[in-house]
Amino acid sequence: MEDVITDIPPPSRFFNEDLNNFALPSPALPSPFFVFSKPDSNFPLRPSLLVVAISPPSIYLLHHCIPSKTLIGTLILPEISFSGNPIEPSHRSKSCDIYASIDDPAILFMSVQLPVAGERAYAVAKLIIDEGEIRPERVLILDSVQSRNFRGNLSADEMLVFKLETSSTSGQQMVCGVGWFPSGSMVDGLGAALLTRCQMRRIQGTLCVSWPECGPSAVALVKSLLDNSVLSKLDVRAFDGDCDVGFDRIKDSELYA
Amino acid sequence: MEFILEEGKHLHEECSTLILPALSIGNVGQLAIDLLVSSMGADRVGYLDDPFVLPCVGNDAYGSASRGDLALPLEAYDSPSNALSLIQQRSPLVKGKMVEFAKSLADFAISSRKNHVVVLSSLDAGRRKRIDMSSEMQIFYLSSTHKDGTDDHCEKMGWKRLQEYNPTERKWEFLNDLAEGKFIDEGNWPSEDELIDEDYYPSLPFAALFSCFKAKGLKVTCILCYCSEGDNVPDSFQLAEATCKLLGLSISNFHGKQGGGWLIPFSWTSLYGPPPDNSLF
User: Whole-prediction pTM value?
Assistant: First the structure.
């Protein structure tokens, strides 16, 4: 039984520090930055499309079903330790790698595999969208429905996908056959920060959120989404239904380097 | 903080009064703004880009057509027929950045030539020290009109000045110093262990907004009501009605709904989550 006295309050209610003018801010962190394998490239890069994979299924898909890509750089968050990362890129490593599509070099992929705190999302989004070495024309963000912020029913055996778009995208859809995210629910974190940045800078941006958050069915759902999107002409391999896309929060904790 | 005009829109100079929410228990100020924007048919004119507001996005909070108009964390609306601007804030702030945020909002109010700011906030009913029979629907206020926080117009309406406001008390003074940009030694910053009961009210976001707007020479009125966590929709109606009373607005003239009156925002249909699963019964 829930303990209403000691349990963390539901997400729509405030923590004490949210309502305290005298709460001390956390120490300032160094700014995030990009590192590219070819530092003498012609910057800023201006891809016609930047695909940002945030959800575990989309990250898995990027690693295992889109083979025609080249690692060109990475985004560094100085506060994140890389200890425990394998040498070769993996969908389980703690990194934020950037790839160029071999089929279409005007398309870049970004695989966000490290935890971006809400307080950091603004700075990271600013770097990715309009203040770093990448200035995308269009942005497609693949994230998950967040059960804590979703006001509808979410069943573990139900598959859902929704979208939100910037006003600049009107009439030039990046994904087809996907309904609008229902009013009253919200998305937060890096995906939200990226789409907000696109809206403010009048860049075409689409955020797709899918459910469930993990498992083979989630990967298959994201695969079908990409098959009906601006990526439909890319070589996206069939998903064989066998994957280890877990939602293992313990392993993501920094206690387990 | 940067104000970004929505494409094809412009600010209306006649909108000289600004209404905005303070983060508070039950999200009452934010709900009241939702109700006012929806009922007035206020038009979104732009966004405020601030690094201290936590990111969030959603679908249009007001229209039932669900066309996919983005809802962003900090939005500015104008209602020229009511000479009002409104700001809606949908997410909390980065910890410890409330005063900086309030200063930025005050700068925005100055640059957009507002001459009156109305802050809507709730207060924790569990913190009340005095309750009387008539106090359930009582509106409290704080005004920059007089030094003691009173305002004759608010008094005539039967509102009560927040008694816990004491500009000479240490935390109110400290907040005032912060708002005026006076240098504060880090050693003098209050630790959370030092906070006592009297520090509760000046620690609340509405107090930071009040102090920062006042420091800029703006007329500011805080409209306050006590409530507890729960279904806070009735509390939001109370604050929204009080706002209309303060500004002399007639709800029957609102344009959001044919024939006037309150128009419930579409997003409120799922305010407390989905209905229960009927298969349980």
Answer: 0.91
Q: Does A145 touch chain B (CB under 8 A)?
A: no
Kindly list the structural domains of chain A, giving each domain's residue range(s) and its CATH number in brackets, ordered by start. 30-252 (3.40.50.10900)
Where do the H-state alpha helices sit in B162-227? 170-179, 200-203, 205-215
Subunit contact A153:B277, Cβ cutoff 8 A: yes
Task: Summarize pLDDT for A158-208 with one digit per residue, the tens.
Answer: 899 999 999 998 888 899 899 999 998 999 999 999 999 999 999 999 999
Candidate from B53, B207, B267 with C-beta closest to A183: B267
pLDDT tens per residue, range B123-178? 988 887 766 555 557 999 999 999 999 999 999 999 999 999 999 988 898 899 88
How far apart are alpha carbons A23 and A17 in whole angstroms? 6
B93 touches chain A (CB under 8 A): yes
Residue with tokens 């925002």: B265
Element (H, E) at A123: helix A118-126
pLDDT digits (tens, 9 = 90+) for A62-113: 988 888 999 999 999 999 888 888 877 787 788 999 999 998 989 999 999 9
CATH class of this structure's domain B2-270: alpha beta
Q: Of A13, A165, A189, which is closest to B55 when you measure between CB atoms?
A: A189
Cβ within 8 Å of A, B 1-20: 4, 6-7
Give the span between the Cα atoms of B59 and B13, in whole angstroms: 29
